[in-house]
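Re-running Structural maintenance of chromosomes protein 5 to confirm reproducibility after the cluster update. Everything else is unchanged from the original entry.
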Amino acid sequence: MSAVVDDRPSPEDILAEYKPGSICNDRLQNFLTYDNVEFQPGPRLNVVVGPNGTGKSTILCAICLGLGGQPPHLGRADDDRHAQWLHGCTK
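Result of re-run:
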């Protein structure tokens, strides 16, 4: 009889790798091009890549806004499509 060994790290071990202030989880609902998406950045370097128009900047803008940034700081204040940031996000 053989034993099954689970070598995956525990959630506590994974969280221990993150520095204080790190983003461990992010969820966007009805935000610009996203209906519902959730992602978990790793504890080190994270790179957002993809073709034009796939929502890379939307993810970064959501993070900035979630941390208290303002649309003028993101260079999108003059774009009417992004005015919903100021009044709530609805589709």
